[in-house]
Description:
2 copies of one chain form a homodimer. Chain A is of the alpha+beta class. Chain A is built from 17 helices and 23 strands.
Amino acid sequence: xxxxxxxxxLRITDVNKTVTLCGWLQKGRDxxxxxxxxxxxRYGITQLAFNTETNPALCEKARKCGREFVLKVxxxxxxxxxxxxxxxxxxxxxxxxxxDILNEAITPPFTIEEHTDGGDELRxxxxxxxxxxxxxxxxxxxxxxxxxxxxxxxxxxNFIEVETPVLIKSTPEGARDFVVPSxxxxxxxxxxxxxxxxxxxxxxxxxxxxxxxxxxxxxxEDLRADRQPEFTQIDCEMSFVEQEDIxxxxxxxxxxxxxxxxxxxxxxxxxxxYTDAMKFYGCDKPDTRFEMKFVELNDLAKGKGxxxxxxAELVVGVNAKGCSEYTRKQLDELTEFxxxxxxxxxxxxxARVNADGTIKSSVDKFYDADALKMWAQKFDAKPGDLxxxxxxxxxxxxxxxxxxxxxxxxxxGLRDVNKFSCLWVVDFPLLEFNEEENRYFAMxxxxxxxxxxxxxxxxxxxxxxxxxxxxxxxxxxVEVGGGSVRIFNKNLQAKMFEILGFTKEEAQAQFGFLMNxxxxxxxxxxxxxxxxxxxxxLFGGADxxxxxIAFPKNNSGRDVMIDAPSSIDDKQLKELxxxxxxx
Amino acid sequence: xxxxxxxxxLRITDVNKTVTLCGWLQKGRDxxxxxxxxxxxRYGITQLAFNTETNPALCEKARKCGREFVLKVxxxxxxxxxxxxxxxxxxxxxxxxxxDILNEAITPPFTIEEHTDGGDELRxxxxxxxxxxxxxxxxxxxxxxxxxxxxxxxxxxNFIEVETPVLIKSTPEGARDFVVPSxxxxxxxxxxxxxxxxxxxxxxxxxxxxxxxxxxxxxxEDLRADRQPEFTQIDCEMSFVEQEDIxxxxxxxxxxxxxxxxxxxxxxxxxxxYTDAMKFYGCDKPDTRFEMKFVELNDLAKGKGxxxxxxAELVVGVNAKGCSEYTRKQLDELTEFxxxxxxxxxxxxxARVNADGTIKSSVDKFYDADALKMWAQKFDAKPGDLxxxxxxxxxxxxxxxxxxxxxxxxxxGLRDVNKFSCLWVVDFPLLEFNEEENRYFAMxxxxxxxxxxxxxxxxxxxxxxxxxxxxxxxxxxVEVGGGSVRIFNKNLQAKMFEILGFTKEEAQAQFGFLMNxxxxxxxxxxxxxxxxxxxxxLFGGADxxxxxIAFPKNNSGRDVMIDAPSSIDDKQLKELxxxxxxx
Lengths: 583, 583
């Protein structure tokens, strides 16, 4: 080793030891007779001291070193006269007797500090410098810890990690695949897996009983702010279990992770049906760090001559506690907010419950004091509260009110990143109708089992009413995991493909291997997958998953550091029997 | 859970418990009044007993169940009258009171037994059934254990696992890349990584200090028997280290794995230079489970009028101890063996040392008894030994003798799969000359550092003499890992690219990001990568890595189970701006 110690480990008890450290020059300070350098490595920062009088040549050499120079330094550990309470090494410094410059550095394009002056694009281009920043490195250390603890928990529960293939077969169902031309099989393509779904089911059929894998998955979708073309999943499957067993097992995993990684004890996870989630929160991943449940007002609001409400399928609102003093400007902002195309409401109705108990609404013309009092009762609104109401087509209005509720939660500081609220959302619909394509799609995926008691609805052509044994784990309004009990019967699986519009031939061509496997003794099985990047960002209290990925891609799917993707040469194309088409 | 216990856990102490088990019907036996079923799951086999007299209907139902049916069985644990000493559950059986058929099974295409009647192709097509066989599952359980213990060791040594990207940039140097057309960047391609080499070096530049990853890598090469297009590496890198530190650290890893996984204590690994490996074993990955070192005979063999030896660059042989009684037929077999095109020798000379000390050779015409006695002394051949000699161009002869040595090792039973002999091969040449392309290639890769004392040879144009700080770990004649100290100086790296025939522009286009990174303070660093599949197969005492991969591909790169690769539809091609070219 070029060093005897790291820059994070020396303490007052090490005084008088002769040590050698290696690291980067974080910062230098010249104070008349002394020069100080902060030397940084992964483990911490140690102060180096050079004395002009005792060793002028060495001091001169030190003064010529710039930021991010790589140094190897030998000296004696001494007690500092002015101690630094923030640094763990802050009680000591190194009286340097000798040092080598292992490598020089030109000036970095941004400062390597917690709060850097580098913009997003610059930091991505020089990601290797961005990763030197303590915050970014801490994110990846957290990620490592979450992965270690996940493995520890699952290993102890007898799960076995099995690597499934990356070069698999393309299937048109679901999101778009990345494909890989095969040189040895001209004109044919592999696909990169969107998930190891069929493989983990085959492993259950093989009797592996409990499988997991922390695994890269790929989706060629248009990227939104927080999606990556390659992402990581904690992928799990169990045999001879029912939904309840999966919920208990993975509730255990998440509790373990919170305890070990964050030191937080999590309560048992409440369960909410999909129907309730939509009714009370307007979305299937409610942020339950705060209450502010939806209150439906059709019975009290309609038939009083206010055309907006009378023509609406649904009148629904929330009680923003303590907001009755909102100014005209603030209310206008909220109105603008709900009218944004992403939210999609046509307007906002409010009712303030004043300190004296009187109620002032934006629709006083149609509703008298008694009517408004009944509103307040229904919303459990007390003096000081503000009722916010939207109306219109039911689904759209719930979706818009969900946005408004989250906005109010943010404004009221109810969405603390250091507070965690976890729940299961259960009883998802099996199918959802797609207007554009005029057919049903699997809400989870085509291998999800309907609830046994709902299977008869499949035959009665009440497809939209069929519930699935499917479940999502939601933390702070983020879907961190989801899964289902799987179909393990060939005929039921064939029926599902039929409902999803597959011909028998298509089903056989794409999933024949799985349906054949069902014939050789498939056990009941169920599973779940967690978005690992997302879980890490949640644990790290951050919004973006990008900060928890070492080398992320930008919104065009580019790695701007290595400049990928890039063109390849004609020889390569020819070998692969493909050509690039001009647009 | 559908079960109370697994099929592997019940013991005599559980007698009288009422239990529920789930599993597959391994085998049924009807013995007059009793029917017995062996029920199998991942954890073991438990015998089920059905009594015709006490419950005829249940017994009848049991008799109708075929092999591989999935059953859920409830009954009482009872002591067996005739115990099975081989099974851990062999002292008990279940007196079944009730059971459900969870799923039926048609007859599998081969028997699910340790020694199956299924051929290779059939087992690959029905890999999910092959994986039910205890031996195959045990291989994957071993793999899981090797991975767990690798992580445990490296975690404790402060290594941090960082996931590097799978969608990267294609580089023409080295093996052929798999590429992925980018839809969002028409006409451009990602490449799948052949290794995370440049990324792990960037992580060192970022200050990560100790990195590892168990990671999938990809090479689009023509597949030999034991190569897979996707394979797994244990990939590692350290900063502020010298070669010695890497050797010690990863010697520690391998010792840990042998101890924890195999219960074997491994001695400190001997080191052998590349030059010695070639001189004494004719290859850079000698199987040192047995001695049989090469002995060079030029001084004694040449100039005696035997034209084959006189015209040879090298006369070299081995002493096959105890083989003096080999028959004419056996010697002919060996001659045929060395003359095979894969081995490439033109003939074989032998000399038997008889029990009475006389020596009989196939070249007695040219060498008298005294001359042969000197041979015997040089080979340290005792009565009963057989000297085998090849001659010709030095490199080719060494290569051929290596094959002969291994063949003799096998014939003499010296290559026991349960015996392990590990070593480091060090001081590899930096460059090797490729006759076809008339240029030097990097023997390891272009980022490998020359030995500091040999750098001057680069300028003196003695390229073939430059040694690298590169090392391979060899176990039982298999290269399980290899690595090097890396270049961390921009100018030296630029010179390497120049030597390898890159123009400045090419070097910049392909590796500009790395060379730029070297400008911002790159630390000295070094690393290693282990072939994880190979390591597992070695631990499992098997020749083929395929048995240690859950879903391997065949020699044409096909997954015959899922039938990949396959054609994709025109819409997909169009979106990707590519077309398939007819050959």
